[in-house]
Amino acid sequence: MAEIERDKLLDIYTRTMKVNRTDEKFRELLMQGKVAVMYYCVRGQELVSAAAMAALEQDDYVVCTYRGQGEQTAKGIPIEKWWGECLGKATGTCKGKGGTMHITDPDTGIMVTTGVVGSGIPIANGLAMASQNSGDGKVTLVSFGDGAANIGGFHEAMNMAQLYKLPVIFLCQNNRYGEHTAYADHTDSVDISSRAAGYGMKGIKVDGNNVNEVYPAMEEAVAHARSGKGPVLVEAMCYRMMGHFFGSDFSYMPEEHLAEMAAEDPLPKLRKVMLERQFTEEELDKIVEGINTEIDAAVQHALDAPLPDTDEIYKDVLEETA
Amino acid sequence: MAEITMTQALNLAIDEAMAEDDGVFCLGEDVAAKQGGGVFKITSGLSEKYGENRIRATPISETAIIGAAVGAALAGHRPIAEIMLMNFVGVCMDQIVNHAAKLRFMSGGQTPCPIVIRTTTGVGVGFGGQHSDMLEAWFAHVAGIHVVTPSNAADARGLMRSAIDANDPVIFIENILCYGLTSEDPGPGYRVPLGKAAVAKEGSDLSLITYGRTVLDALEVAGELAKEGISVEVIDLRTIAPYDEETVLASVNKTGRALLLHEAVRPFGVGAEIAANIQEKCWDKLKSPVRRIGGTFSAVPFATHLEQAWIPQKSDIAAQIKASVGKA
User: Which candidate, B13, B14, B6, B9, places its Cα nearest to that of B31?
Assistant: First the structure.
């Protein structure tokens, strides 16, 4: 497999750290009691989101879930608006009416963030259908977890996407837990990607903690979908290093699982690859510092931002109320 | 002017919208020529004209159908999704209620969802409990959706064009027993605005407020009662939600009496909502309690005589009107 180009690798690193620093900052604010909102941590899954977004074009469509911070920030959503929305402010992407589980920013291709497990999968087909009908050349990537692979809509959407050869990438971030239930307790099949064969679809299973595997796989999937050959189901193996949502107990994770997950942490592994590819510690630290500064400013902006007007509850219900 | 059936009216409206806007497309089970142009032939002849991408025959996958419609709408297209029979909406309620209806609001107005969900239903054809229900109240209870049903062919043509024009989801309910009804063709480009009721018959003693197939029953009963000197005004809502409150209240303020009639079951129905609103807003003008008639509160039965007994009876409509005007 060809080496990832240096510029692309740096791009992936930057996106990964943006996701990670956003996650760390969010947990810090929650711990300090500065904000009190639902937040679904992405610690451990940063690289998968970053690699996937780095494989897309800026105007490609993305559908994600309540655990979608990774896709959102890595795709390039303006972070002041992102933080504004997460804090329920008028400056948010959705004027504070969507919230952490419903971030939408069509300008950067974040078309839907659903709070219902698996519901984004059929919607991704529609975005792709629009591209197929109009010939605009876009692909749609929908991200979801292993838990979502067991909802009926997954099956319906896989079959339909393959039938029409829709330009969709189904990215299953297999983080080994569906809410609080371990993979082996919700699914008996050895993996999710092998289900692709049952639909006549291309399936790829990849180590989501290894940039040299996950990025080329995403690139291959995107190229396949964009060429008109049809959808791809990519299963990126990763770990959810926290509970289902911030603050939720995850003592149910066995010792061995925790040890395995610590050993596979994608961040030190990525850092190692960067150093091997002749990026310097200093250079990498500087990137992270820049991200931290940007995030701090965005958080402060959001904290200082006005609340939405109360009459927003009557607006945007139907066009007549816009 | 030529006469058209409701089936032709719907087909013509979809055809002309597709001709005008490349973003309009249909998807649903059996809708293309290969499958006969839809189980009730509404999309007949259209796949030959617009191709199979714009008349997409789908697998039997209601969640995937509505999900795809939602996604295409977010990309700026105007999908017309067919859910063959209204009871099957139970399979895809998450996509309709949690997504189509709410995405405009939850995105702060960024992602409106202009989709038309066509669906067929109706009591009186012997389809039994899972193919007959009128479920409009389920959708009327959700903010962010228009619910529409025509009672005649001309309105079907005009309402369908307006539904396709609308920048929000529309549940478009077609009653099986109305497909064969004929009207004078209102012609190309005809539109009936959403949210506007029709006064199907003027009257002065009581407002009989209904929609869909039961408009026919209402007009028949009103005609009979006219012979007995009772003047019934028949309001055809056409749009069930958000409904034309102005026309309804004006009528009740004039007549002082109201009877709500629908084929859907009575408890917690559309009639209950409108009746409550009338009591609040027309209290000073009311001369008798607002009454409601709906289908029997059970599953729709199969045997013909049971099914006929289940449906709101014309004799009951007449009796309720007479009781209301004090001529029982």
Answer: B14
Cβ contact B71:A124 at 8 Å: yes
Is the separation of the CB atoms in B165 and B215 below 8 Å? Answer: no
**B23 three-class SS:** coil
Report which of B94, B209, B116 is spatially closest to residue B161, judged by C-alpha positions.
Answer: B116
Out of B54, B64, B108, closest to residue A125 by CB:
B64
Q: DSSP character for A309?
A: P
pTM score: 0.97
Q: Is the pLDDT of residue B327 over 90?
A: no
Which residues in chain A have their CB less than 8 angstroms from residue B146's CB?
A: 318
Q: Which two tokens stand for residue A50?
A: 């970053």
Q: From the candidates B56, B91, B105, B145, which should be mutated to test the interface with A, based on the most A CB atoms within 10 A?
A: B105
* Structure ipTM: 0.96
How many CA atoms lie less than 13 Å away from A142 in the CB half-sphere?
Answer: 33
Q: Give the pLDDT band of residue A247 (cuts 50, 70, 90).
A: confident
For A114, phi then psi, to 5°, come to -100, 145
Query: What is the nearest CA distance from B166 to chain A, expressed in angstroms?
Result: 8
Contact A203, A209 (CB under 8 A): no
The number of angstroms, rounded, from the C-alpha of A146 to the middle of its chain's C-alpha atoms is 13
Alpha helices in B80-135 (DSSP H): 93, 103-106
User: What angle is formed at CA B241 by the lines to CA A120 and CA B3, rounded to 5 degrees?
Assistant: 105
Out of A112, A116, A133, name the one closest to residue B53 (CB): A133
B85 with B122: CB under 8 angstroms? no
* List B82, B99, B131, B263, catalytic entry: B131
Whether B224 is a known active-site residue: answer no
Please state the rounded mean pLDDT for residues A270-280. Answer: 98
Predicted confidence (pLDDT) at residue B1 exceeds the cutoff of 80? no
Sequential DSSP letters for B245-275: HHHHHHHHHHHS-EEEEEEEESTTSHHHHHH
The answer, yes or no, to whether residue A1 has pLDDT greater than 70, is: no
Q: Does position B328 have pLDDT exceeding 90, yes or no?
A: no
